[in-house]
Design goal:
The structure holds two protein chains of two kinds.
Chain A: H1 20-51, H2 53-63, H3 66-93, E1 97-98, E2 101-102, H4 105-126
Antiparallel strand pairs in A: 1-2
Helix pairs in contact in A: 1-2, 1-3, 3-4
Chain B: E1 3-12, E2 22-31, H1 36-46, E3 66-69, E4 72-75, E5 88-92, E6 98-100, E7 103-104, H2 107-115, H3 137-147, H4 154-158, H5 160-164, H6 171-181, H7 189-196, H8 210-214, H9 221-241
Helix pairs in contact in B: 3-6, 6-9
Classes of the chains: A mainly alpha, B alpha+beta.
């Protein structure tokens, strides 16, 4: 008997609208654009700093524009979503077995959150917030 | 046990007469406590004997009855009818070619499974008289979760990467390779790395995590893939930064 298997097309572009879990995944992937854009902004800031006081102060002034504030709020939101979704996945990638038992997931994810808080506090300290 | 009528919309494809699949609607009486597989069996017994699908154990052990139920990869024997409202849409597992009706072509998965050598390759050959290869409970627990894979391929149907890039070795095969790599009795990791540490292996995965969400045995293939990525990265740094450690 001859075979004639049927191949179904997978949508190439909008496949992630097929299921909410794919949308959540794409949302996580999308966060990198905002993090990338924020990194570029920092690089531009360093460039302005190298150009001298006047250029740097103009840069700081530009950061106060409404558009810049909207971008920063969005970037912060996406950065938090990025960090939380990835930290929650760390127990899958880094299981720690002690004796027979595996460390509970919350300990591994929690350790990442703790380091995040500590580093953030450290940066705020060096930035002169405290 | 009380009976109720259930409406099912099943994707049909007859390679001898059809050029494309089409949906066929069935209304079937089934026990309230039944699963989708019971409804399919009832259809085949009482309405339409030509309906084709795979099944065997009816208890989520054999891994044969994987299909898309309302768009979600499920074992038909574990999908309770009472959990679905309205018409239940049943299709063959996504991302696999359709052989006939709900039967898919498995060749691609079987080839990939063979490529990762999912069996013990002992570190050292011992004569039978030397006795068994011993293992502590902790060493067993390190990989036990991955032994629960029943090769049902729901993870392949859920994986968007496999749908877009069919050469990806995929979740179950990598999880099984990882299972043997983690086994204290095994010495075959280098051979398996050739397949799974390659571009078509773990690096094709972008951690959508869908495989682990749909796994009926909670094997967590996504976890296995990330662990292989980390181990392969450590290998790369060791080879390039500390070449004197190379065997």
């Amino acid at each position: 008997m001859s075979r004639k298997p049927y191949h179904r097309e997978v949508p190439r572009v909008l496949w992630f609208f097929d299921h909410p879990r794919y949308l959540r995944y794409m949302a996580r992937e999308l966060t990198c654009l905002f993090i990338g854009a924020y990194t570029l902004l920092l690089v531009v800031g360093i460039g302005r700093l190298a150009e001298g006081r006047a250029a740097y102060e103009a840069f700081l002034e530009a950061l106060k524009s409404p558009l810049s504030i909207v971008f920063h709020v969005l970037a912060l939101g996406f950065a938090v979503y990025h960090s939380v979704t990835w930290f929650n996945l760390t127990p899958k990638a880094l299981p720690v077995q002690i004796g027979e038992e595996f460390m509970p997931d919350w300990v591994i994810a929690g350790a990442h959150y703790a380091v995040w808080v500590l580093l953030s506090l450290g940066i705020l300290f060096f930035a002169g917030v405290f | 046990m009380s009976e109720r009528r259930f409406e099912l919309e099943v994707l049909r494809y007859n390679p001898e007469t059809d050029s494309a699949p089409h949906f066929q609607r069935y209304s079937v009486g089934c026990e309230e406590e039944g699963v989708v597989l019971d409804a399919l069996n009832r259809i085949k017994e009482t309405i339409d004997p030509t309906l084709s699908y795979r099944w065997s154990c009816h208890m989520a052990v054999c891994g044969s009855c994987g299909m898309m139920i309302n768009g979600e990869p499920k074992l038909a024997c574990k999908a309770f009818l009472r959990n679905y409202a309205g018409v239940i849409r049943v299709e063959p597992l996504a991302h696999f070619p359709i052989e006939r009706d709900l039967v898919t072509v498995l060749d691609d998965f079987m080839d990939k499974l063979a490529r990762v050598k999912p069996y013990l390759i002992p570190k050292e050959e011992k004569p039978l008289s030397a006795g068994e290869y011993r293992q502590t409970p902790a060493e067993l627990k390190k990989f036990k979760q991955y032994t629960l894979c029943i090769n049902c391929m729901l993870c392949y149907a859920a994986c968007p990467e496999y749908g877009l890039i069919p050469k990806f070795i995929g979740p179950a095969a990598i999880a099984l390779a990882h299972r043997y790599n983690q086994d204290s009795r095994d010495g075959g990791r280098d051979e398996r790395q050739e397949e799974i540490a390659a571009t078509e292996g773990v690096w094709e995965c972008s951690f959508a995590g869908a495989c682990s969400e749909v796994c009926p045995e909670h094997v967590d293939p996504a976890g296995a893939i990330q662990q292989v990525k980390i181990a392969s990265t450590v290998d790369w740094y060791r080879d390039h930064l500390m070449p004197w450690l190379k065997k």
